[in-house]
Amino acid sequence: MTSSIAPLPTSSPVAPVLAEVVRSGFTEGHHRGSLVLLAADGSVEFALGDPAAPVFPRSSNKPMQAAAILRAGLDLSGERLALAAASHSGEGFHLELVRTMLAEHGLKPDDLRTPPDLPLDPVEAEAYLAAGGVREPLTMNCSGKHAAMLAVCVRNGWDTATYLDPSHPLQRLVGEVVAEAAGEPVAAIGTDGCGAPLMAIGLVGLARAFRAFVLAEPGSAERRVADAMRAHPEYVAGTRRPDTWLMREVPGTLSKMGAEAVQAVALPDGRALAFKIDDGSTRALGPVLARSLELLGVDAPVVSRIGRAPLLGGDAEVGGIRAAF
Fold first, then answer.
1. Is the separation of the CB atoms in 74 and 55 below 8 Å?
2. Which among 37, 74, 257 has a CA at the least distance from the CA of 151?
3. Which of 21, 70, 159, 188 sits a CA distance of 20 to 30 A from 126?
């Protein structure tokens, strides 16, 4: 009798282990992925896996989307511009500013095409539900970006009903900004969790883009976005989020995570990093980010804080997730 099961390939590329899951002294799991660190001059200083392969940066693309909104003519600054580049936690100050940004341009929360969702931060989500809240487009973490996208459409007389279509003038401009900042063409276009078009680039390109933003000329769209995010990091993320901690405690740092365990960071002198954990597990993001920052020479208490990812057994800490490089 002949088996109909195809033989397994004798060899295939396997991404390196970026983090280990260690419980009670026993390694019970691994998180694999790719990573790149850039030196201050933009050269690749350290790499693991295949950082040139295209990935969807998810919300790590938001600084480029915000820069495109500025280039399209919307005059945003301060907290408003930071919120346009945000994956906000759904805290009260986030939601209030989204409402304000919409109202300033004659828009309403019903105009948002974000999917109904709860606040991203678990603490905020529990409080929101306890107060009788339900899933709404406003509370979805991308609502600040969408409010800014709608506002620039109003300013330019562009159709607001189709602002998420890849062929919309705004989204074509986003693609141009992403390719320019990354120094490489967009490899694929998909749809992000919020419904917006999503441009794929390599991790090297993503790190280059963040580096380009912190080194951009003052007053340029890219530098305005970077400066707003760094000045108001709580609007980019939230009060209990690593991006906020890092930008607040290491002055001049630009940091933005994305879904599926993507992270990009640039330091003010041009050193930069980007990585993606293949299985999308955000529990490994902190340890990998902390180790990457250490390799870039960042010496600050916040690095240890970001890197802690304990595992519990009952009520006791019995292990943790740790970087493996």
1. no
2. 74
3. 21
The pLDDT score that the predictor gives to residue 1 is 47
Strand, helix or coil at 187? coil
Report the distance separating Cα 275 and Cα 191, nearest Å.
Answer: 20
Query: Helix, strand, coil: what percent of the chain each, to 5?
Result: 40, 20, 40
Comparing CA positions, the residue from 181, 226, 175 lying closest to residue 196 is 175
**DSSP class per residue in 106-154:** T--GGG--SPPB--SSHHHHHHHHHTT---BTTTSTTHHHHHHHHHHHH
- Give the pair of three-digit tokens for residue 267: 């330091």
Structure tokens at 81: 């511009």
If residue 312 lies in a helix (H) or strand (E), which one and from where to where?
Answer: strand 310-313
Over residues 37-49, mean pLDDT:
98
Query: At which residue do the structure tokens 């019903």 appear?
Result: 110
The tokens 């409010």 sit on which residue?
A: 147
Instruction: Tell me the pLDDT tens digit for each residue of 175-186.
Output: 999 999 999 999
